[in-house]
Amino acid sequence: MSEVYEARRARLRERCSAGGSQAALVSRPANVRYLAGAAPHEAVLLLGKTEDMLVCVSPPESRPTEGRPDEALRIQALPGSGGDPSVAAAGLAAAQGADALAVEEHHLTVTRHRAIRSVVPRLRLTDLGGAVEQLRVVKDEEEISCLRIGAEIADQALGELLESILVGRTERHLALELERRLVDHGADGPAFATSVATGPNSGRRAHRPTDRRVEEGDFLSVCLGATYRGYRCEIGRTFVIGTSPADWQIELYDLVFAAQRAGRESLAPGAAYRDVDRAARQVLDSAGCTEGLAPLTGHGVGLEIDEDPQLAPAAMGKLDACVPVTVEPGVHLPGRGGVRIDDTLVVRPEADGGPELLTITTKELLAL
Length: 368
What we know:
Order of helices and strands: HEHEEEHEHEHHHEEEEEEHHEEEEEEE
Strand order of the largest sheet: 4-3-2-1-5-6
Number of strands: 19
Helix content: 25-40%
């Protein structure tokens, strides 16, 4: 993997050089892990003029779920305790002869920015912006493999839960059980806080589980994800509990399913982000479901659960191949409940079979 990280750092170095900076300080943890293989607590990555370094508060511990630092990187642990890796890295950049340092202003605190200026006042600070995040959008096949395994784990955990007795159990209990099952099946942990919503809570985006108990006739909406080797996927499904669905439940489910299918089918290299959103949103709009819709239809996933691109009405840009995204429309009817259907897919050209579906749990409206 060392050559992979070296290639990523080389691409970032080219961007920095084009912007007039001879060195870069990467402090956002997901970006550090992407470029260095691991992101120990408070560690930063210095792309130096003569040498790259992972600057840490203390020597990193060997924790496989948190990744392993690239062997080609020099690890610089701060002496004693209480030092600031960002300030130390800026000093190392100046010692290597750099006169300009690109920093992640969207992540670096004002306090640290001021500390760097006071320690190395002659070092010109520039904004690295979202350069690393942009590099992370398109995934290589190793990254996609991690997402695929994470999706398999999430599918397995969800499938096992659906085979158990659900009536009478609380949303909170079911969410905790799902997260335990994720770890049992090999996940680093949940990709985000698991959402289980029943009855009038169902269909709500990012619903926090409560002590409400599952009742017969409820809609049950579940949204969960697994983290595997740092990569995070997402799946959401809606079911009916204990009885045949009511007519209104079937109609609402079919509507959301049609919207989700339209969004999935629009995923292709070259498709505009907002066109994917429009494909799903138009289905809901045409049925009169215009209030309370989510601000976006989906988003990128990877080392973070919510990455670029954003599939939203005003989003600018077009999809590339090998970009993993979610498609997750939903409708919530206040006081009644609702439906969410959420998949993680990888954008692929039509010649390769079109979008690759990673989360394969059935989308049939099941009565559990």
